[in-house]
Amino acid sequence: MTAYLLLVILLGCSFFFSGTETALTAVSQPLLHEQEKQGIRRAKTLNALRQNSPRLIGTLLLGNNLVNIAITALATSLLIEAFGDYYGILLATFGVSFVVLVFSEILPKTYALSNPLSFSLAVAPIVAFAVKIFGPFVTGLNWLSAQTMKLLPKSQSGTSEEELRAEIRGAIDLKADKMPQEKGMLKSVLDLSDVTVEDIMVHRSQLVSLNAALPVKDVFDFVTRSPFSRIPLWRGKQDNIIGVLHSKAVLKAMNTYYSGYKNIQLTDYCTRPWFVLNTTPLLDQLNEFKRRRDHFAVVVDEYGVLQGIVTLEDVLEEIVGDISDETDRPELSTLQVIKTDSGAFRLDGSATIRDINRHFKWELPDDHAATLAGYLMYETERIPNVGQTFVLNGFTFTVVQKNRNRLTQIDIIPPAI
Question: End-to-end distance of the chain based on CA atoms, in angstroms?
């Protein structure tokens, strides 16, 4: 009777070691860290144990193997005594294997995978005690394993930044299905290093700027009617940006002007333009916005030629999506989409590929072109004419309208699903 009771205890120990190994592997490290910050002592114990994972895993494997071997030996002895050598060995081979497989492998591991956090916290004190008991022996086994590993072919170790990003993206995909908005934001944050200022800037063709030589009253009138809080000033030619006029500065200038001082210089109320390269990654640009405490930058290429402007709001919109207020112009702040009778989506040629992909959940490549028109010209290696149709990556593109060499309207028919 004692032997059968011991067998049940050994099965329970096997359940414990097998389930604990699975639970500690499956439990989220960030979640345990958060639990520790909340003052949960068992989470602190588990985090300390996981700092030396070879010793922890070695202890669990050693305990599991010792218990399973003891189960096999004891059960075989009992079955041989009860049914003789032949049938006893036969029953031990198949019967014990079945019991160990179900009650010591499948059941504990399935339960541990379903409840990794609660299981891990429940067994934390016992695991800590087991590591203290078996620790010295496990250290010796780990040393022996390390010496053996030296004889095997060496492989490159470590995880690259790209692999780490891919792992985080995969974790977001797996864990954030019930939080679509948060999922999109998290992915956008990871992409900030891969997206450049050129991909999100307001292109020079859409840039609103003012000639510094205009009469002061005309500038006041324009700025007070404009939806923009900052407007670049140029002198001589539009590429020559000499300052940025802020709406608050205009109020000060107006107060001075209408108080009788007519000979004011608007450049005295401007801030110096901040020029950034169009190839600057968005993550770097965001950090620069924070460091300089500025929200507005003029974008130039490597030759110093004006390309457009970028604002802090543009960078934030890349993460959280479109941010509109009562002063925004809808035609500039949102993607304009017209559904035609043929089922095509009519878009402006200046629409960015990133905005289109985000809006439609498509995956048009944006490696070589930032806008829809640029993508079409790059892929076709020409400037298409009105009415021409192309099939690229399964999408059908038709040029609807053109202004000189600029494609202004393009119809897109996505692949049939």
Answer: 67
Contact indicator for 369, 378 with CB cutoff of 8 Å: yes
The residues near 89 (Cβ < 8 Å, ≥ 6 apart) are 76, 79, 80
The residue from 147, 163, 189 where one domain ends is 147
Rounded Cα–Cα distance for residues 33 and 375 (Å): 45
- What is the pLDDT at residue 396? 93
Specify whether 21 is located in the same domain as 130: yes
In this prediction the pTM is 0.59
Are 350 and 226 part of one and the same domain?
no
Do both 76 and 114 map to the same domain?
Answer: yes
Q: What is the pLDDT of residues 276-325, one digit of tens each?
A: 999 999 999 999 999 999 999 999 998 889 999 999 988 888 887 776 65
CA nearest 232: which of 205, 210, 264?
210
Q: Are strands 345-348 and 406-413 parallel, antiparallel or unpaired?
A: antiparallel
Cβ atoms within 10 Å of 336's Cβ, excluding its own: 11
Contact 354, 195 (CB under 8 A): yes
